[in-house]
Amino acid sequence: MGRRFMIIGGAGFMGSNFVRHLIKEIGDIEVLVYDKLTYAGRLESLRDLINMKNLKFTRADLCDEENLTKTIEGFDPEIIVNFAAETHVDRSINEPAPFLKTNILGVFTLLEVVRRREVPLVIHISTDEVYGDLWNIQPANERSPLIPSNPYSASKASGDLLAQAYWKTYRLPIIIVRPSNNYGPYQYPEKLIPKTIIRALHNMPVPVYGDGMQIRDWLYVKDFCEALNVIIERGKKGEVYNVPGLNERRNIEVVRDILKLLGKQLSLIKFVEDRPGHDKRYAMKGDKILALGWRPKTPWSEGLRMTVEWYMNNEWWWKPLLSDRYFQIDTPWGGERGASSRYWS
Ligand SMILES: NC(=O)c1ccc[n+]([C@@H]2O[C@H](COP(=O)([O-])OP(=O)(O)OC[C@H]3O[C@@H](n4cnc5c(N)ncnc54)[C@H](O)[C@@H]3O)[C@@H](O)[C@H]2O)c1
Fold first, then answer.
1. Residue 336 has pLDDT above 60, yes or no
2. Mean pLDDT, the chain, as a whole number?
3. For residue 260, which of 313, 210, 220, 305 has the smallest C-alpha distance?
4. Using an 8 Å Cβ cutoff, are 272 and 330 in contact?
5. Which of 92, 157, 336, 344 would suit a FRET pair with 291, their CA atoms being 20 to 30 Å apart?
6. Does any ligand 1 atom lie closer than 6 A to the CB of residue 14?
7. The CATH number of domain 3-187+219-246+278-297 is 3.40.50.720
8. Which residues have CB under 8 Å from 276's CB, separation 6+?
9. Mean pLDDT of the region 254-280
10. What percentage of the chain carries pLDDT values higher than 90?
């Protein structure tokens, strides 16, 4: 019997890529995916794996303490990786409550359940966004202050602080991982790269927020999966690891590169009003993970080409998602304000 991994949020973009990576590249493991299947979680993202004997699936909420406890007791994981989160900044502007619930209370629930059980290692997936806007200043290292700018990043920073407190107070064996912007197959079409590809394929205008000069550091998701494995094998408990892409690009460049790959006119680009509180730059130093012997391998041109090809060849996966207003609307962060009070009732 191999090592037992419990992957919370394993039906989302990065989680499903990591589950595939574990099963196909590592071998001799058992994987349990624990996922609520929100709009962003889809069993379709695990379709090629779902019949494998070493993959099990439980549909449940991270905030459901009873269910989480039973699942952990039943499966007895050696490693828990928590990918589960509400992840789209635009949605967090309209309706912050689900972000606070999953990204803070959900993390708290996990920490509490694990505190009372023997789980050898918990990996919590955070984000570079917790460092806030790094326009014209040095990239963040793991000791840089957390200065989040929007409800999404504030909720993620809160989860990190709880995780750190549980390490210091209870010696709960946790590692926090902060990846930069990931891209690749199975990403929901609300996010910049898949939204651009799919809208361009339909000759729809491609919205660019503000002047498009915002900088993100792009990391191909398979490279991130390798980084995560390195951290699981060689990372130190209680530590934080940044995982940068070492590939800073302006949003407008990203959009232009996609349109060129698709052979589409740049006139599809439509500059729209900027997102409120939009951070101009995320950037991280990766000295700690680089010292563990990892580096991103996939050049941007190759990663982007593979991503575009994946979306061109897998219409079955994204077609059912196109009625979503976060795909349809150019500035979806407008409207729906005030929905949060209804959420809590
Ligand atoms: N995508 C990126 O570029 C990026 C970059 C840095 C960090 N991250 C972080 O990585 C993690 C994964 O991101 P992603 O892009 O794959 O997200 P995603 O939105 O594609 O998937 C999130 C998954 O979590 C599940 N989920 C949400 N709430 C849940 C709950 N209460 N209980 C159980 N499951 C729940 C969803 O069903 C879905 O399967 C997140 O924690 C995110 O903050 C993402």
1. no
2. 95
3. 305
4. yes
5. 157
6. yes
7. yes
8. 93, 333
9. 97
10. 94
Report the pLDDT value the prediction gives residue 173, as an integer from 0 to 100: 98
The b/e string for 220-259 (b: 16+ C-beta within 10 A; e otherwise) is bbbbbbbbbbebbeebeebebbbbbbbbbbbbbebbbbbb
pLDDT for residue 145 is more than 80: yes
Just list the catalytic residues. Answer: 128-129, 152
C-alpha count within 13 angstroms, C-beta hemisphere, residue 126 = 33
Query: What is the band of 27 on the pLDDT scale with cuts at 50, 70, 90?
Result: confident
Judged against a pLDDT cut of 50, whether residue 227 lies above it is answered with: yes
11 C-beta closer than 6 A to ligand 1: yes
Query: Which residue among 80, 83, 187 is best mutated to probe the pocket of ligand 1, counting the most ligand atoms within 8 A of its Cβ?
Result: 83
- Residues whose CB falls within 8 Å of the CB of residue 12, separated by 6 or more in sequence, listed in order: 35, 40, 41, 45, 83, 84, 87, 188
Shortest-distance Cα residue to atom 12 of ligand 1: 83
Rounded to a whole number, what is the largest CA-CA distance in the chain? 58
Tell me the domain boundaries of the chain: 3-187+219-246+278-297
Is 342 a residue whose pLDDT tops 70? no
Looking at the predicted structure, is the pLDDT value of residue 19 above 80? yes
Query: Which atom, in ligand 1's list, is nearest to the CA of 106?
Result: 31
**Of the candidate ranges 21-30, 107-116, 215-224, the one whose mean pLDDT is the lowest:** 21-30
Q: At a CB cut-off of 8 Å and minimum separation 6, what does 42 contact? A: 11
Distance 19 CA to ligand 1 centre (A): 13
In order, the DSSP letters of 263-295 are T--GGGEEEEPPPTT--SB--B--HHHHHTT--
Give yes or no for residue 156 CB within 6 A of ligand 1: yes
Q: How many angstroms is it from 87 CA to the middle of ligand 1?
A: 6
249, two tokens: 């690009």
